[in-house]
Specification:
The protein is α/β, with parallel strands linked by helices. Helices cover 24% and strands 21% of the residues. The protein has helices at 14-24, 57-61, 115-127, 155-164, 177-189, 208-216, 232-236, 238-241; strands at residues 2-5, 29-37, 42-50, 66-70, 91-93, 96-98, 107-109, 132-135, 169-173, 195-200, 221-226, 250-254. The strands form three sheets. The protein has a six-stranded parallel beta sheet, covered by helices on one side. Helix 5 links the parallel strand 9 (169-173) and strand 10.
Length: 292
């Protein structure tokens, strides 16, 4: 069961104290508090964990600080909307709106190899009216001898070029919690000229220690990326793995790259040689030589 309090409810207020005291005395029920800090208001949600079949919803709804009560009966209790159309969809980051009414393409370098190529990419994006990109400074590789990115050494010129070419947001994959600190420090050193969305790739989709650290930080938005052919349940379960404090700051995306894989899930197994399912839409690009 989910109890949503009135916006901007102060935890020291008499209304909140009375509400929390009543909920904490419910038998066989544990409470989990989740605070969502938005641009204009602060929203407090309280999750009632346990057997709520005997809990009187109307009695809870009548508590002084409660705005509404939602009964949750299906899975994904944290990220699900649960038939509550009043919950906000979308978010704004660095002046860019992300919601159901727009589409942002994060074209860029999978792995940043040098400053020249990074500049050519950002210049091309600016010329085509784009202000989002991806820049792979840290790249997990199956082969340990493959190029794994320049790491921190390339961050300064990436952020400087973003400022030069008006790039508002850079999606950057991270593979270790230390890299979050490096990105934050380099952004500070260059004057915070752009925003960064932390990216969680398929290899780290179940790296729960990394996910917990990303969930604790409040500076960056986060997105998870998987392929069209991956089962949905593993990356949907990424969200509850992160602390409640910032679960709503994690977004999910699906990579458009087709891959031939074999996986185990509730769907029948597909042979490795069989083609991956083709998505119902595609983005076509002119067949020309590109500068990147």
């Amino acid at each position: 069961m989910l109890v949503i309090l009135r916006p901007n409810t102060n935890e020291k207020s008499d209304e909140f104290i009375r509400t929390w005291d009543f909920l904490s005395h419910l038998q066989n029920i544990k409470l989990k508090k989740h605070i969502v800090t938005g641009k204009h208001q602060i929203l407090t949600e309280i999750y009632l964990l346990g057997d709520t079949s005997r809990v009187d919803r109307q009695q809870i709804a009548a508590l002084p600080a409660v705005e509404r009560v939602i009964k949750i009966s299906e899975g994904y209790r944290i990220l699900g909307r649960h038939h509550d159309n009043k919950r906000a969809v979308g978010f704004e980051y660095k002046g860019v709106q992300f919601n159901q009414d727009n589409l942002h393409v994060f074209a860029g370098l999978c792995a940043v190899d040098n400053r020249e190529h990074a500049e050519q990419m950002m210049k091309a994006l600016q010329e085509n009216g784009q202000y989002c990109t991806r820049m792979g400074a840290y790249k997990p590789r199956t082969n340990p001898y493959s190029f794994q990115g320049h790491g921190r050494s390339c961050l300064h010129y990436i952020f400087e070029l973003a400022s030069k070419y008006g790039i508002k947001i850079i999606a950057m994959e991270v593979t270790h919690e230390r890299q979050i600190e490096e990105i934050s420090a380099c952004l500070e050193e260059t004057g915070c000229p752009t925003g960064v969305i932390l990216q969680i790739g398929t290899r780290n989709i179940q790296n729960f220690e990394l996910l917990k650290e990303i969930g604790r930080q409040q500076e960056f938005e986060t997105r998870t990326v998987t392929s069209w052919t991956s089962a949905t349940s593993p990356w949907l379960n990424v969200l509850p793995a992160c602390p409640f404090a910032s679960t709503h700051r994690i977004r999910s995306a699906c990579a458009t790259k087709r891959r031939m894989v074999c996986w185990r899930s509730s769907t029948p197994r597909r042979k490795e040689s069989s083609p991956a399912p083709t998505p119902s839409w595609s983005i076509s690009t002119p067949n020309r030589t590109r500068p990147w």
